[in-house]
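Session log. Operator J.P. requested a structure for one protein chain; no other inputs attached. Running the standard single-chain path with token output.
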Amino acid sequence: VMSILLHGDAAFAGQGVVYETFHLSDLPSYTTNGTIHVVVNNQIGFTTDPRMARSSPYPTDVARVVNAPIFHVNADDPEAVMYVCSVAAEWRNTFNKDVVVDLVCYRRRGHNEMDEPMFTQPLMYKQIHKQVPVLKKYADKLIADGTVTLQEFEEEIAKYDRICEEAYTRSKDNKILHIKHWLDSPWPGFFNADGEPKSMSCPPTGISEELLTHIGNVASSVPLEDFKIHSGLSRILKARSEMTRSRLVDWALAEYMAFGSVLKEGIHVRLSGQDVERGTF
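Structure written below.
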């Protein structure tokens, strides 16, 4: 399994969650053994120029905090993009560390159907309108090289257009829109045909008092003989032992019994984080 995250340039530079996840990227118990971050850098966030959106030269500079390699590549050159992506995958596979691919490109149209980018970026969009689209640029190169013929290229385009047209035609046959299918996809068999939850039976999860007492006694004892423990801890353990004897529980003992009973069934329990390590809860 390889984790890949796709980002926009403005989001990559501006969202705190990106910085936070980079800082989780190499922590024991939290790492994914390297994530490949692909940044679609069209050099404009909604309508904001980069110079108004961030203080660093590149949107990807936030990745320097963990010394992740950052590849800036001209997205108008598909072969360079493919080369960089395979290097990124190889880096991740070899070193199990995060890596960033910065696709330097442009956005041909506005942010949405209502947005006219010429209002806010007239000079930039005059340049963009002069740019040859990447598909045409690459097709012309392949045809000039003799890698494909004009006829093969046109057949591929026609084939793709046909797929889109057929899907569009089929969409007109849909008379009813099931909005909830878009909003969530529940597990099959979870709801009945009317969308109501099926009656669910919960198996009893209780355990015998004898087992609870056993867990309580283990949780309030010290496994090693002649092991000197902190006086503060011995007070806690003594109180826990008395609670078990009196058939009472507090939050901490209840958690102990929950974990203990699951462990007794042979199920692994992993606790992580600072509060767990020092026993706050």
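Operator note: The longest strand covers residues 35-41.
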